[in-house]
Specification:
The chain has 179 residues and is α/β, with parallel strands linked by helices. The strands form 3 sheets. Strands 2-5-8-11-13-14 form a 6-stranded mixed beta sheet. A 4-stranded parallel beta sheet has the order 1-4-7-10, with no helix packed on it.
């Protein structure tokens, strides 16, 4: 927990006034308490987590349960309206903005998205269902992603249209002309 918190502290520019940092502190604490084996010892930490989770939800509007799996250095810019499902998985160095929903497509059906490393999710985007978002992807603002997105792609629109990233296309052209 403390190594992750140290990385989060640096990710947020060592600024304790960032609300996204406090969302991550509560999330990391919630994950850490699961490592306490004895239930009676874990109980007061679970109670403290539930109070901190409720406070963060009221103060920032971010719903990030500790059951979700987040990688290292995840950054939450403007956490208002952020909703992440408890069985979602996010890779390292992801960026989430306000109004993002990462969760179930239908009530009562399990299966949440899996985001790769370095995924940048725009404001208001919705990523729903049992889908995978590859590494180095960008999800446009207000996009509704309902199907897999391959690595190094951009997803924009409602429903999302998937396009290769321009940077990747430029790199691929440069490699093909060099050979």
């Amino acid at each position: 927990m403390f190594d992750n918190l140290r990385e989060d502290w640096h990710t947020y520019g060592r600024d304790a006034s960032c609300p996204g940092f406090w969302v991550m502190v509560v999330y990391r604490f919630g994950r850490w308490r699961y490592g306490i084996r004895w239930r009676l010892l874990r109980l007061p930490f679970s109670f403290a987590y539930k109070i901190a989770f409720a406070f963060i939800l009221m103060a920032t509007g971010a719903e990030l349960p500790c059951e979700a799996t987040l990688g290292r250095r995840v950054r939450i810019d403007h956490p208002q309206g952020l909703v992440v499902s408890g069985d979602a998985r996010l890779g390292d160095d992801c960026v989430l903005r306000n109004g993002v929903t990462i969760g179930l497509r239908r009530t009562g059906h399990r299966g949440s998205p899996v985001l790769g490393n370095r995924v940048d999710v725009g404001a208001g985007a919705k990523i729903l269902g049992e889908i995978e978002i590859g590494d180095d992807c960008s999800i446009g603002a207000n996009a509704v992603v309902l199907k897999d997105v391959p690595a190094r792609s951009i997803a924009v629109g409602i429903p999302a249209v998937i396009r290769p990233s321009k940077e990747f296309e430029q790199w691929r052209k440069a490699c093909s002309t060099a050979s």
